[in-house]
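Input record, target 12 of the design panel.
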């Protein structure tokens, strides 16, 4: 496995979350003619983002261990919980929260829940990226 591939995949995941959630969607609401139009476009972008996240997480899972090996690479051992957590958060947001927002069901509550799940997924992606960028690929040793 090429050593840089996990970092590239994690960077794509984190970078896409950052770009869509913190730049593109706010710009939609700032510049499109109505919140309804912006919301519809945002929903489509977030749905596409979910599939980017799923693809990145699956690739990270597939490359987490050498061929025919039992143990994972050190970066994967440290990041596995965050890969799986980010994948779950993405799917939960898309299939649990987004339909309620589209249906305008208790909009304030579900928008807040969706934003929190998105932020948590962003944190998972950042943590995975951080672990893939460790120069030695090792898990940090504790002092205790």
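The sequence produced for target 12 reads:
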């Amino acid at each position: 496995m090429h050593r840089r591939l996990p970092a590239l995949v994690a960077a794509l995941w984190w970078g896409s979350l950052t770009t869509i959630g913190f730049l593109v969607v706010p710009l939609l609401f700032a510049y499109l003619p109505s919140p309804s139009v912006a919301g519809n476009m945002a929903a489509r972008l977030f749905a596409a983002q979910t599939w980017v996240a799923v693809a990145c997480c699956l690739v990270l899972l597939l490359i987490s261990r050498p061929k025919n090996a039992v143990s994972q690479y050190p970066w994967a051992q440290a990041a596995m919980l965050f890969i799986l957590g980010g994948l779950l958060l993405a799917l939960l947001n898309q299939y649990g929260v987004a339909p309620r927002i589209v249906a305008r069901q208790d909009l304030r509550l579900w928008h807040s829940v969706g934003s929190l799940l998105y932020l948590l997924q962003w944190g998972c992606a950042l943590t995975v990226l951080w672990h893939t960028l460790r120069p030695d690929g090792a898990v940090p040793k504790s002092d205790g």
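The two ends are 33 Å apart (CA to CA).
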